[in-house]
Amino acid sequence: MKRVFHHPPEPSTGKRYWRSLGEYSDSPEFRQWLEREFPQGAAELNGDEWSRRDFLKLMGASMALAGVGLTSCRRPELHLVPFTKNVEWTIPGKFLYYATAMPRRNGAIPLLATTVDGRPIKLDGNPLHPATGGATDTFTQASILDLYDPTRSKRFVHAGKTAKREDFEAYLKDLGNKLLADHGDSVAFLVEETNSPTRERLRGELEKTLPGMRWCVYEPLLSQGTIAATQSAFGAGARVIPKFDRADVILALDSDFLDCGQGDLASV
């Protein structure tokens, strides 16, 4: 049985100590707060008559009331639906590798993408490609997170407010009609430097539909002076690939010699 220690009674004579400024002032507000904090009859819960059976009764009633209030709080139900047609070359739980490439400014990095049940989980360099020898950089390793970015756009927004898909499609249709009316004279595309064949194919289709459009390529980090000097000295299409393994000391003056934007990692 729990033993209750009672507070010793205050002496009737002698010095009296107060526990707080409120008790010292003994104002009506403090007495009201004291009554609300320690109501009459609260001490009965600490007496010897408070048995284990009474405690279990109180806890059972509390859990029952909590269950009534939480009947609508549960995890969302998700249903696993099997494939009506299985994905080609896939075995559940087994890795499947794809040879791919990551476009860069003047080239691409050959990669091997590791997938599990159709989900890409890792990017590694292709060891069979002579351009990189199986190497990758930090940008390539971090690019896999773009597929699982929780902050990516998941809805249509117009003027800061959520819009419907039908409104967006209607806007695109109206914009397309306006561009077709002037043969694309009022539209311009500003894109970065890349050797993506998919983008070049889309560009060709746009030029057929909108012959008056302007296609502008701008790359702020591309050193045009270095490219012009290299091609002037060694011919068109030439590119400098330094051999750092043969150097004892490297002096870089306003030059990021570890940049892999050209798509070559063999020398890094």
CATH fold node name of the largest domain: N-terminal domain of TfIIb
- Supply the CATH superfamily name of the largest domain: ADC-like domains
What is the percent of helical residues? 25-40%
Query: How many helical elements?
Result: 7
Instruction: Provide the succession of SSEs.
Output: HHHEEEHEEHEHEH
Task: Classify the secondary structure makeup into a structural class.
Answer: alpha+beta
Q: What percentage of the residues does DSSP assign to strands (E)?
A: 5-15%
Average pLDDT metric? 78
Number of DSSP strand runs: 7
Give the overall shape, derived from the CA principal axes. Answer: elongated
Radius of gyration: 37 Å
Task: List low-pLDDT spans.
Answer: none
* First-last Cα distance: 75 Å
Largest sheet: 3 strands, antiparallel
Structural write-up:
- This protein is α+β, with helices and mostly antiparallel strands.
- It has three domains: 21-69, no CATH class; 89-152 and 237-268, ADC-like domains (N-terminal domain of TfIIb, Single Sheet), CATH 2.20.25; 156-217, no CATH class.
- It is 29% helix and 15% strand.
- It contains seven helices and seven strands, in the order H-H-H-E-E-E-H-E-E-H-E-H-E-H.
- It has helices at 21-25, 28-37, 52-69, 138-142, 165-181, 197-209, 224-234, and strands at residues 95-103, 108-116, 119-125, 156-158, 161-163, 188-191, 214-217.
- The strands form three sheets. Strands 1-2-3 form a three-stranded antiparallel β-sheet, with no helix packed on it. A two-stranded antiparallel ribbon has the order 4-5.
- The protein is elongated, with a radius of gyration of 37 Å.
- The model has no long low-confidence stretch (mean pLDDT 78).
